[in-house]
Design goal:
single chain; alpha/beta; TIM Barrel; 8 strands; globular; Pol/histidinol_Pase-like; phosphoric ester hydrolase activity; Pol/His_phosphatase_N; zinc ion binding; PHP_phosphatase
Length: 253
């Protein structure tokens, strides 16, 4: 399986990451990726960039080194009602939104399965969100059987996060359960590196191994095909309104 896009990455603008935006894009070009999304953390994460950083992402060329660049954010789910910290002035301006739960930003003293399920169910109603970020985190388990079909029904891509195999190992059994349910319910997924340094952009070794173990259907992996990836962008992302996207050159590779 050939993964053509990495749509969850961080730059030094997220101050616990270690490579510049251009270094991340260069790495994606070296690995012959079709696209990369730059998704630095929303404001509730300690060390996150400010609002102007996201508002000014419009200056980033749509293509750099032959790679399609999506301007995005990893927004934080901040409560059990599924509210997120995406700045109102950024709504409709960013191409790609990953929604995740992080301990540093999630305001819930007792994250029960019911409470976290409610948060994710409300996220399914948010048209700004494209990707369900690393939702296998053990501390924030939810009713997978109930919620995952809703992710599919509402066009949310369920992420298999390569970083979870390295930094969130306790979540691996949940990641496997989630992938099994995505297969069962034909819910599209996306493989992402969650890279915080250019050396790991486009690296999906553990994720691909899990999909192979599960005999996961390639047609459900949105970023395993340029055409499937295009189709998703055309249906759900604001990129479709970009003049460059509408031109013949957007399919540069």
């Amino acid at each position: 399986m050939n993964i053509i896009a990495d749509t969850h990455t961080h730059t030094i603008a997220s101050t616990h990451a270690y490579s510049t935006l251009q270094e991340m894009i260069h790495a994606s070009a070296q690995r012959k990726l079709y696209a990369i999304a730059i998704t630095d953390h929303g404001r509730s994460m300690p060390g996150a960039p400010g609002q102007w950083y996201f508002e000014n992402m419009k200056v980033i060329p749509r293509f750099m080194e032959g790679v399609l660049v999506l301007r995005g954010q990893e927004t934080n789910i901040i409560d059990t009602d599924g509210n997120i910290d995406l700045e109102p002035d950024c709504v409709g301006k960013l191409d790609w939104i990953v929604a995740s739960i992080h301990e540093e930003a999630f305001r819930c003293e007792n994250p029960t399965v019911e409470a976290v399920t409610n948060a994710w169910m409300n996220i399914t109603k948010n048209p700004q969100v494209h990707v369900i970020g690393h939702s296998g985190t053990k501390e924030y388990e939810y009713d997978f059987e109930t919620v995952i079909p809703e992710f599919g029904r509402t066009g949310k891509l369920v992420e298999l996060n390569e970083g979870s195999f390295i930094g969130r190992k306790k979540s691996i059994p949940n990641c496997k359960k989630i992938m099994e349910l995505c297969k069962k319910h034909s819910v599209p997924i996306i493989l992402n590196s969650d890279s915080h340094i250019s050396a790991t952009v486009g690296c999906f070794e553990h994720s691909l191994e899990l999909l192979k173990e599960l005999d996961f259907p390639e047609e459900l992996v949105v970023n395993a095909s340029v055409d499937r990836f295009h189709a998703y962008l055309k249906e759900y992302s604001v990129v479709k309104n970009d003049p460059v996207f509408q031109s013949k050159s957007w399919r540069a590779k």
